Task: structure prediction
Amino acid sequence: MADSMDAIQSVFKFMVASTLIVGGVLVGGTVFAAKKVDSIGDAIQKKLHR
Result:
């Protein structure tokens, strides 16, 4: 019984770690994309308001 609990616990820890890593990558990608879109918008605005 203890072995199965250890296995379940290790799987749960792996799932939590994976979720945190994937979440971090998604947030980082979103921030990067938002900054890129903002800089493109700034460049377009400079061209329009010459």
Notes: The CA atoms of residues 3 and 9 lie 10 Å apart.
